[in-house]
User: What shape does this take?
Amino acid sequence: EFQRIGDKKRKKVCNINIKYLGDAHGKQELIPQDGIPTVQVGDLGVGFSPLNLPSNFWFIRGNHDNPHIAKELEEYLGDFGYFGEVFFVSGAMSCDKSSRFEGVNWWREEELPWSKWNSVVESYNGANVIVSHDCPTSIAESIFGIYDKSNTRDGLQVLLESNPPKLWIFGHHHKIVMVEVGQTTFICLAEGEMFDDSKLTK
Assistant: This one.
């Protein structure tokens, strides 16, 4: 059976315990090969080096993933949508894009365009868990002291304010953070860090 989740059609997923993997940046040794259901939270390193992806492994895009190659991979969840009961959103802004080369290690499409966020918001009907590469604006400002303008962070903020999840998992910042804000526990995964959602959602 197939279902459409956001912008991609895939096999229907039953409720399963999922482990989450932080940024990998093309490091094969950080990618688990044990077949345990795993979602990688972006900056897998797609397009930078060849990767051997195991079964039961999926990922969203970060700012350091080639969006054109990612969209051709079965393991790519899509730009946004539901994966079981998890809502996901791909993309983020590169703070170092001025030192990168477009089409080589930086892509203009690294963030979803603001015009696409209407579809993201309309498709979001609440979730126990949200997975994204970056975090909402309020978290970026209060936890990381980041005030740069970002479509991704502003769009994620809209989701947070419309219907906050119980758990929000993200990467991008390469720091280990767990903080409760309002109704939501935010978890930032460091590079290569694994997290089992059953620890907090059961």
Observations:
- The radius of gyration is 15 Å.
